[in-house]
Write a structure and sequence with these properties.
Blueprint (H helix, E strand, L loop, with lengths): L2 H7 L2 H21 L5 E5 L4 E8 L12 H25 L5 H23 L4 E7 L15 H32 L1
Antiparallel strand pairs: 1-2, 2-3
């Protein structure tokens, strides 16, 4: 197998790991924690495992919109976006290793939540509930799941990698001028 192809295919392992972990954890929550209840708490009430669902997107945005609008905006458009991201991913020869792994983690999280949108009538299963101590007016952070975590963590890593790359490029340009 060509080195370039291998460097593009290997990070897809993360995509599948995120999807599998996300779906397994959601399956366990649905099976063992009754809807709208706290299954267990850790560190007092800092971290709770609860069973809720979300028909909207981040912070339940759009949850009260009509079914057609939600399905189109939160299911079909993300499928198109993820397809475009994967086309760019495979065509681009300039992404570094961290960027490739980060993109695959984001795609895994996106697909994990899309599986819920297409196959769970109640919407995306969320279950991680963290105390936020009144920061930004929130006593608790909005409930999330493994897929959401992968998108956020990998998104931050991707952003940092682009910032670092830009700084390195600027330094290289400045040293070439001197």
């Amino acid at each position: 197998m060509e080195k370039d192809t291998k460097s593009k295919l290997l990070p897809l392992v993360l995509t599948f790991v995120v999807i599998i972990l996300d779906q397994i954890t959601k399956m366990l929550v649905v099976r063992y924690i009754p809807y709208y209840t706290i299954g267990t708490s850790y560190f007092g009430d800092f971290l709770r495992l609860i069973h809720v669902s979300n028909t909207g997107v981040a912070f339940s945005f759009g949850a009260t919109w009509g079914e057609t609008a939600r399905r189109f905006l939160f299911s079909f458009i993300p499928v198109i976006v993820l397809a475009i991201v994967m086309v760019i991913y495979f065509r681009n020869k300039d992404f570094n290793k961290l960027q490739r792994w980060s993109i695959c983690g984001i795609v895994g999280g996106g697909l994990g939540n899309l599986i819920d949108r297409f196959f769970r009538a109640e919407g995306v299963v969320d279950f991680i509930d963290i105390k936020f101590y009144g920061l930004f007016g929130l006593e608790r952070w909005p409930t999330f799941n493994v897929a959401d975590s992968a998108v956020v963590v990998c998104g931050i890593l991707l952003l940092l990698s682009f910032i670092i790359m830009t700084v390195q490029d600027e330094r290289a340009k400045n040293s070439d001028k001197n």
